């Protein structure tokens, strides 16, 4: 008996979807890989500020926080510029490469040419602002590549899988390189020479990733890929007002924004080093455990991401988000109850307790990965819905507006974490792994490590109740967009003859 071939998404939905080759998706998301290399370098900024520019540690923290807010403010302006610019060869490669060049020049000026030259804080701040501008250009253009490459609902989540794989692997690899290769060559000290050598090597590596990313988007990086379907030329013009219109009238985007912002705040607070000290160092008694778990979680996390992409492709981003958010809620609740009932100092000394804790923790990490994959597909859906709603294709505007909120939320993470630990007695000194656990530390750690994420997931579920872009609705959106594009193509020859 002959095997019946499986229907493609286009055949099943009655829509001629735009698809990308697998290698194009893999290469295009290396722009995120390049950004992750710079992310590792930014993690060394506090050492650079102190060793290379003589900036006090406390002042260094303030500078990085304030400039992070500036990063959020600059994103919408950069997004508007990207939307308005038209090149005959497209725009993705131009802004990706230009952004990379600006951020690379700023990094080399900070780490190599300006470091240890007596230039002071003003020079550092000025160059770091230049770095932020270049980063915004590169990141927004890179994040636009997914919606441009494909609108196939089965393929779209794959874009987020590749981005997530790079976000996991590349920082880990380059962090290991800096600590295992470069640091020992400089007597295990973060000296100016060590930071200089690291920066030169990392910028060169990021260039390789950037070139591959440009190759990945080359086929679709053309003007027609960014075409609007507005009925008039004036209606297709992009202005600052469009950002407000997206926020005010694009209901799915607003709900997506609420979901992403609440989850991001919990993630940022949880990832703060001081919270890790409370959880792994004081309560569990093994400060290295958090790092070990994050490395161990990479492989199962990737497996969950691949599964999540397939699940999201079949069910749609809304269904995947709701289902796996509920799973995250239940697993986090189980872990929180476990930590409240069990003496955490006894966990690592008991094999059954260790297995239970590690297993549930890894499952929670994997379930969160599925939600992340669904969120990537959801942003692309929101962009296409905006094209259907307003006639304007605004991937940079949607991305930049989301990034603006994301950066503001991220800047609050450290403040919230430090304020919380101050409430339990650490107002003048920071928690140390050698501190003794007590009830106040236990309750605050559970609240921040599990309670805040649970609150974020509850906000997500509430936001998703009114989110209308389910699998069925997105098929109708794509049909309407395709129909309008066909009409415009039919009208164009007629206008040319007239």
UniProtKB/TrEMBL annotation:
<feature type="transmembrane region" description="Helical">
    <location>
        <begin position="355"/>
        <end position="377"/>
    </location>
</feature>
<feature type="transmembrane region" description="Helical">
    <location>
        <begin position="53"/>
        <end position="82"/>
    </location>
</feature>
<protein>
    <submittedName>
        <fullName>MFS transporter</fullName>
    </submittedName>
</protein>
<feature type="transmembrane region" description="Helical">
    <location>
        <begin position="321"/>
        <end position="343"/>
    </location>
</feature>
<feature type="transmembrane region" description="Helical">
    <location>
        <begin position="161"/>
        <end position="183"/>
    </location>
</feature>
<feature type="transmembrane region" description="Helical">
    <location>
        <begin position="94"/>
        <end position="113"/>
    </location>
</feature>
<feature type="transmembrane region" description="Helical">
    <location>
        <begin position="408"/>
        <end position="429"/>
    </location>
</feature>
<dbReference type="InterPro" id="IPR039672">
    <property type="entry name" value="MFS_2"/>
</dbReference>
<feature type="transmembrane region" description="Helical">
    <location>
        <begin position="265"/>
        <end position="283"/>
    </location>
</feature>
<keyword id="KW-0812">Transmembrane</keyword>
<keyword id="KW-0472">Membrane</keyword>
<feature type="transmembrane region" description="Helical">
    <location>
        <begin position="25"/>
        <end position="47"/>
    </location>
</feature>
<feature type="transmembrane region" description="Helical">
    <location>
        <begin position="119"/>
        <end position="140"/>
    </location>
</feature>
<keyword id="KW-1133">Transmembrane helix</keyword>
<feature type="transmembrane region" description="Helical">
    <location>
        <begin position="199"/>
        <end position="218"/>
    </location>
</feature>
<feature type="transmembrane region" description="Helical">
    <location>
        <begin position="289"/>
        <end position="309"/>
    </location>
</feature>
<feature type="transmembrane region" description="Helical">
    <location>
        <begin position="441"/>
        <end position="464"/>
    </location>
</feature>
<dbReference type="Pfam" id="PF13347">
    <property type="entry name" value="MFS_2"/>
</dbReference>
<dbReference type="InterPro" id="IPR036259">
    <property type="entry name" value="MFS_trans_sf"/>
</dbReference>
